[in-house]
Structure formats: structure tokens, C-alpha cells
Amino acid sequence: xxxxxxxxxxxxxxxxxxxxxxxxxxxxxxxxxxxxxxxxxxxxxxxxxxxxxxxxxxxxxxxxxxxxxxxxxxxxxxxxxxxxxxxxxxxxxxxxxxxxxxxxxxxxxxxxxxxxxxxxxxxxxxxxxxxxxxxxxxxxxxxxxxxxxxxxxxxxxxxxxxxxxxxxxxxxxxxxxxxxxxxxxxxxxxxxxxxxxxxxxxxxxxxxxxxxxxxxxxxxxxxxxxxxxxxxxxxxxxxxxxxxxxxxxxxxxxxxxxxxxxxxxxxxxxxxxxxxxxxx
Length: 280
What we know:
- This protein is an alpha+beta fold.
- Among the domains are: about 20-80, no CATH class; about 95-155, no CATH class; about 175-245, no CATH class.
- It is about 35% helix and about 10% strand.
- The chain is built from eleven helices and seven strands.
- The strands form two sheets. Strands 1-4-5-6 form a four-stranded antiparallel β-sheet, with no helix packed on it.
- The longest helix has 16 residues, at about 25-40.
């Protein structure tokens, strides 16, 4: 971090809080007040908690500045901001570890497992641990990106990582764990197709359209097909083709004109019929 932001660390002595002025005590008091207030709130996720903490920290800037009477912390920072150096590219802080992809296309890290594309099974990859996400990197670049599991012994799947497997083994769609989290339209289509023999192969054809056309186009097509009550792979692919078809090519101006308009006469095809030949 010091090399990224080009500053030289100057550490205080151990257990010598007076060397930091009022900074450490002010931060400690503000932290205690915010967490006491947090005990009265309810949050559905860590993302909600972090968003709330961000608003509380910004609100704390309205407190009086400890060394400038009559000036708030926000006002003092606004005055100093013009003298600060421009912000470079944000520091990409993460913990990186090396791991081997298992035969089931999973990477074990920090007591949890995360999926990667099937093509990387058995290979070594680099795993970057961020506070809220896990990024898996190989030689071409980022191959997988997951929300980080908070607890232990979780398996985090991305069903799109297993599409090549479905193409070879459509039966995996029936009980495969990675496909338990399919989007709702695909879940309904799967239930409708698996009632019939060979439905897993039909569903596999639909899923194989995702890498080519994108998951959003496939979901819209599946929704339209489900409304008809007669789902099939050909119907879905036909709708996708119509949705992704570009505008018609522009007409080309020409000076050519038709001297004799064609006549719609289907009887002229009768002249093409040959006389019936009897074979001995």
C-alpha cells in the first residue's frame, strides 16, 4: 500500500497513544457511539449493515473539530481538500492464494468451495480473497467471480460453469447441485420438459444457447415460450433468433425497372409434370 500511494510509513511507539494527538481517542469514541446505535437496528445482510455504517460515518463529520473552535470536521476537510494530492488508481487490496481445481470444478479456499468453468478442472489457479467476493484468476484473466460466503463449509456454484458438462451429460440436469439455482423461468421450463422422456436433452439444447446469445435473451425467450403452453427447444431457439435478429438491411437505390410485371399463375407449374411412365 505504501508503494502504491507513494508514502513512507512513520509508526508510533507501542502503547503510546499520546503521540497520535486526539485522533485515536476520537475514533474510539465515534466507533463506540455508532455500534451502540447499531444494536437498536435490524439488518438483513452485511451489505445493508455496511451501507448503514457508511451513512453514520459521514454523519459523524458534522461533529466539532477538536482543534478548530466553531469549525466542523467536514468544513475543515473541505478546506484541506484543495491542498491534497490527486487520488491515483484505487489500491486493489486482496489476499491471494494458489489452489488446484478439483475434478468437480471446485476450488477450496477459506473453508468454502467455489465453482470455476469445467475447462479448468485439474489446473492450478490463483484465488483473490476480498472482504465481500472471491475472484479466481488464471492465465487468460478472471475465470470466475463469486460473492464470498460468510460461514464455513459452503459450496457456491455458478450453473453457467457447468454448461459444457450438460452438453455431454444432459442427465445432470435432473439432480445436479449446480442447477438448483437456475433462474425461475429456466426452473419452470426444466420442470415442464423433464416430465417427458428425453426432456433433459431438450433442456440441454436450451441452456447451450446461453454462451452464444446471453442469459438475458434466453430468459426472455423462455418466458414467451412458457406463455404458449407448448415448450420445446426449437420454439425457444426460434424466439431467440427473432429477438436477436438485427434490423433489415437498407434498401439500395437502383435505376432498374421491371418492363413486364410477373403474373401469379400457379398453373404454369403443370407444364413441368412429365407423362407417367410405366416400368415393366
